[in-house]
Design goal:
Blueprint: H1 9-24, E1 38-39, E2 45-51, E3 62-70, E4 80-87, E5 92-93, E6 99-105, E7 108-114, E8 120-130, E9 133-143
Antiparallel strand pairs: 1-2, 2-3, 3-7, 4-5, 4-8, 6-7, 8-9
The chain binds copper (II) ion.
Amino acid sequence: MLNSQFWPRPLAWSLAALILVAAGCGGAGGADGQAGFVSSEQGHFEGRFSPDSTPIELQQIHSWTLELRDGDGAPVRDARIAIQGGMPAHQHGLPTVPEVAGEVEPGRYRVDGIKFSMKGLWVFRLQVWAGALSDEVVWQVELP
Ligand SMILES: [Cu+2]
């Protein structure tokens, strides 16, 4: 049976980027590329990651909000979140080390210290631990 475990991860990333670029042509998502919730890699959660203010300014430090909900649409509370990110096309990471400032409302987590140093496609990998579950939300941001 064909399974994603047989796909080397870089290939999966390229495919994800390709799909995003194709989707981006519709222009529906605006500057952040995605607007709605996306399913986490294992399907345990749905997440949406959005800037607290727009338009997104380059070279400015700003805060974002990660909204997490479970398969029933209920907020995911008391999650622990680790953030990684970078530009796959350039093979560099984030210029800052973002941190989760806290759960500001049930299932809504404020992330401080995000900065973009250039235009292009940025990809966040938000690892989430909640209860007995662990999963990863992958979120793309295209800065035109
Ligand atoms: Cu870059």
